[in-house]
Amino acid sequence: MFGAKAVYLDGKLVLCFCHGEEPWHGVLVCTDRTHHATLCADLPELAPHPVLPKWLYLSAGGDDFDRLAARVVELARRRDPRLGVVPQPRKRRKKRARPV
To answer: When you count CB atoms within 10 A of the terminal residue's CB, does the N or C end of the chain come out lower?
Structure first.
């Protein structure tokens, strides 16, 4: 997923750890927009991702990244109901007809 390490819990995509150039250098918190306000109230450093605004983002460039990322992981470990999205099933590709 975007060159990231994805974390699935109970069939839901919960977190993506990205190690690339900004804005792909940090933790994507996979959640519904309905939960953004409460999660941002708990962790003000979270913000909608600039490319995928349906998810929240914690940049690794922040001074307190390790502590904040550990808090996000702990929310996931506790199965916080605000975290996680059910992934859409992958569409099968149509096979091309081969010339005879």
So the answer is: C
CA distance 81 to 71: 15
Instruction: State the pLDDT at residue 91.
Output: 78
Paired tokens of 50 = 């600039």
Residue listed under structure tokens 């929310």? 75
Rounded CA-CA distance 99/17 in Å is 43
Q: How many CA atoms lie within 13 A of 13 on its CB side?
A: 18
CA–CA gap between residue 73 and residue 88 (Å, rounded): 23
The separation between the first and the last C-alpha atoms of the chain, rounded to the nearest angstrom, is: 37
Q: Give the sign of the dihedral formed by CA 78, CA 79, CA 81, CA 83.
A: positive
| 47-80: pLDDT as tens digits | 999 999 999 999 999 889 999 999 999 999 999 9
The first and second tokens of residue 24, run together, are 């792909």
